[in-house]
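@channel sequence for tomorrow's demo:
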Amino acid sequence: MIERMAKDTLLRLAQQFPVVAVTGPRQSGKSTLVQETFPEKRYVTFDDSSVRELASSNPRDFLRAFKDGVIIDEAQKVPALFEAIKLVVDSEEYTPGKYILTGSSQFKLKKNIRESLSGRIGLVNLLPLSISELNLQGILGEDAYDYAFQGFYTPFYDDRKHYDRQDWFENYIDTYIERDVAEEIRVANLSTFKKFIQICAIYSGQILNMESISREIGVSANTIKSWLSILEASFIIHMLEPDTNNLGRILVKSPKLYFVDVGLLCYLLRIESKEELLLSRYKGAVVETMAISELLKSRFNKGRKAELTYFRDSNGFEVDVIADWHKTYALEIKSDSDTEKKLAANVRKYIDLRASDTKGFVYYLGDITCDINGVTYVSWKDWGNNLGGTHGIE
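structure tokens (generated this afternoon):
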């Protein structure tokens, strides 16, 4: 079993909040994580209709049956439970980590949390497996493109399961639309929404143009905006907002779109093999998407917000990522495997413009992480590794 880096964050929050919820996309390993982290706790799932009916009929009595707390999977399926948890938490002795919740439908889960448990709950966003997690487990291979093509959803790394990649992703999209999206949009729009996801894949790594997507899909720009928010809320995509430090320059104001998992991205782009990916015009965008995803995983695993932007001015000068954390980091992402000086050109220019304590990084596909003339070249095997390594981003 692969050790998840979010475990420490989950334990930290469970020492503070009476309720902790683990959210994230389907098949990211939420249920496995909470059961491994709290093996002493009872586990129930509301996928079981008899358990769901029991909890729905009298939520407070249901909770009283677990005096030492409980892990509740698919908690959003019993909305009345959230108000009952609030009443129990507020009326009993303060007990951190008593209730651990997970759920696949992010919209319902977050809505119930927002309405009933604000201030009483700690949240962990769990994305699919990271490169760092595979590396620490000793199972990371030597070719970055193997992972760029396959992606990082947990079933692909479970030795007990043998999925055909095409079948798995087809089922994943259908399940996501039918179970997570159907209630958020009109049923008549479901097939159009599926086409919309496929069109979005073409834009991964690009500045968003909602008007262009609107014309391609045949729905209004406002609808596109609403659908994009649905994809982002359910961890299918992530929007990278433009940097607000204009350095005296006019900036592009639109966000960039990235898919959270590169395997799903390749599937939607109809890339059917690693060799096809290597020859694809989308190769650079896939590599950039994978790097952004690794940064997101690293931040979320630590229980932190992404706080990532990109810089682009009206003259076309661009830096792929600006991370304003305890220091400022300027990061370029390249699909090259050699530490060529030109790879760091934009990072160095940005550092000169900013005239502050800014550290430069280049994410590339080589095997060695090293410092060259003040810029750190980070091997793909170390992407997202900000957990205290010599060259990590803190």
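heads up for whoever presents: The chain has two domains: 6-125, 131-382.
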